[in-house]
Specification:
The chain contains 18 helices and 22 strands. By secondary structure, it is of the alpha/beta class. The strands form five sheets. Strands 6-9-10-3-11-12 form a six-stranded mixed β-sheet, sandwiched between helices. The protein has a six-stranded mixed β-sheet with strand order 18-19-20-15-21-22, sandwiched between helices. The chain is globular and about 70 Å long.
């Protein structure tokens, strides 16, 4: 008889009236790998954070090893035997492997850390996960695959019985991904219950004993791996059966004008070469799985990363931005995916967040034109549907969707002229209402000003809603294109899952 290590029952969680988890059930027996699928916003991350103690659920139970819990703190989650290894690893680069494994649970002898004992135990844990690094190696010097194994070894040091892996191969090469898969299979034989979050159906087919698909906070599909086909999973992720997937209605919008952005043979570490064009008033999507290189492409166009070669033109002007200031001067702006870390200034007012790049153009005789700034802010706030319209309210006090409107408004207000707008996951962490307002704002920007829009997204629903044309990205290259009636959620998912995403070495760590 198989022992169940993890049983989640009717788990719910809401944020500001938005239901992120809606009665989720999940059971993972010991010695099983359970794949968890769903595109961005499906609820996977919220479920993981409830399990790891980062979020308290509103209702439902989490049963670990037969003991039920209505909520967990991070410390209680670890004590219960849960180890969550997030996509962003928690290892400390400056410390050794052994110091990372025992961080927060150091062994002492006569009041001092017993480094020798720690290193001996760490060596055994590293052998258990077949890591090739030494307990004395500095983690910052290790390749990403070895860092991931250090995280797993750390989990095993705490007697974890439930292991959660969140997109573990997103930043790994093909060889590192294969090696990690072997380690995960070994851990299954050691009796761990493993929740494996992934976008790659090839990993599901190789590793999983069962699979659950989430969409809009609900479980919409569950089966043993022997009980489904790839098309079943694609249809479940997309949200409707294959035969019911409607064709994308052909929008009566304007025909794209001449090329506003032209890229030829662009390449850099982990991506390319690639060529693309975005016409005047055209909205082009870059769709690919996590680790496909979408973010790296946008950041290179914006000058945050240096290209190794290729050419780039804005209209008829050849540009080669080596830093963001040069890109902005050329008429290129980027709204990054992580707005709080990379774009928003939480302590500054909403008005200052929007108008920071526009203060000088609006100034009169070297002095700030406060009246003009207020007028531009209120005009922009009305255009994007900002709520509340409070110019002095700190940016960090707004909801996620309204924070995104502030960041977007920075580049589309009447005091700025942007030729090319780059958007990375434009509605990530945004509620449905704000999402529609952002789509409307971007569409109006393209239609009325002729701005060329290039956006990256891992959400097929978003691509269908926003793009005139979509480029499929895998392994840092453009491998296909969809447009018109062919641009459907089903077609997008089929395109990326039918592509061998490991045929090209994926971008290095941190690149989406």
């Amino acid at each position: 008889m198989t022992t169940t290590n993890l049983r989640i029952r009717r788990l719910t969680k809401s944020f500001g009236g938005v239901r992120a988890l809606d009665g989720v059930d999940l059971t993972v027996p010991a010695g099983h790998i359970h794949a968890l699928l769903g595109h961005n916003g499906a609820g996977k991350s919220t479920l993981i954070k409830c399990l790891g103690g980062a979020f308290p659920p509103d209702s439902g139970t989490i049963e670990i090893g037969g003991t039920p819990h209505t909520r967990l703190t991070p410390r209680e989650s670890i004590a219960a035997g849960v180890a969550v290894i997030y996509q962003t690893l928690s290892v400390v680069d400056a410390l050794t492997v052994a110091e990372n494994i025992f961080l927060g649970q150091e062994w002492t002898r006569h009041g001092r850390i017993d480094r020798r004992a720690q290193e001996e135990v760490a060596a055994g844990l590293l052998r258990r996960v077949a890591a090739t690094c030494s307990p004395r190696d500095r983690v910052g010097d290790l390749p990403m695959g070895q860092r991931q194994l250090v995280e797993i070894a750390k989990a095993l040091s705490r007697s974890a019985s439930v292991l959660v892996l969140d997109e573990p191969t997103a930043a790994l090469s093909g060889a590192e991904s294969d090696a990690l898969a072997e380690r995960v299979e070994d851990l299954r034989t050691q009796g761990l219950a493993i929740v494996y979050v992934t976008h790659l159906l090839s990993e599901v087919e190789r590793l999983a004993d069962a699979v659950t698909v989430m969409r809009d906070g609900r479980v919409v599909h569950h089966s043993d791996t022997a009980g489904h086909t790839r098309s079943d999973l694609v249809a479940a992720i997309a949200g409707r059966p294959h035969q019911e997937v409607a064709e994308r209605p052909s929008a009566p919008g304007r025909t794209p004008g001449p090329a506003r952005l032209s890229v030829e043979g662009l390449h850099g570490p982990g991506f390319g070469p690639l060529s693309l064009t975005v016409g005047e008033g055209e909205r082009v999507g870059l769709f690919g799985l996590i680790g496909s290189g979408r973010t790296r492409i946008l950041e290179t166009l914006f000058g945050r990363r240096r290209a190794s070669g290729g050419t780039m033109r804005i209209a008829e002007r050849t540009v080669a931005p080596a830093r963001p200031a040069q890109a902005l001067a050329a008429g290129i702006a980027l709204v990054p995916a992580d707005r709080r870390a990379q774009a928003l200034f939480p302590v500054l007012s909403a008005q200052d967040n929007v108008l920071l790049p526009s203060i000088r153009p609006l100034a009169r005789s070297g002095l700030r034109a406060l009246g003009a700034e207020r007028r531009v802010f209120h005009s922009l706030a009305h255009a994007v549907g900002l709520r509340p319209v409070r110019p002095r309210l700190p940016g960090g006090a707004f909801s996620g969707g309204n924070q995104q409107k502030l960041v977007l408004g920075r580049w589309i207000n009447e005091a700025r002229h942007v030729e090319v707008l780059l958007l990375d996951e434009p509605t990530q962490g945004v509620d449905v209402g704000a999402r529609q307002e952002i789509y409307r704002t971007v569409s109006e920007l393209a239609d009325e000003r002729g701005t060329a829009v290039l956006f990256a997204s891992s959400d097929p629903e978003e691509v269908v809603a926003l793009a005139d044309r979509c480029l499929i990205v895998a392994g840092g290259r453009i491998v296909g294109e969809l447009s018109g009636a062919d641009l459907t959620e089903q077609a997008l998912l089929s395109a990326v899952h039918d592509t061998d995403d490991r045929a090209v070495t994926p971008p290095a760590e941190g690149a989406a």
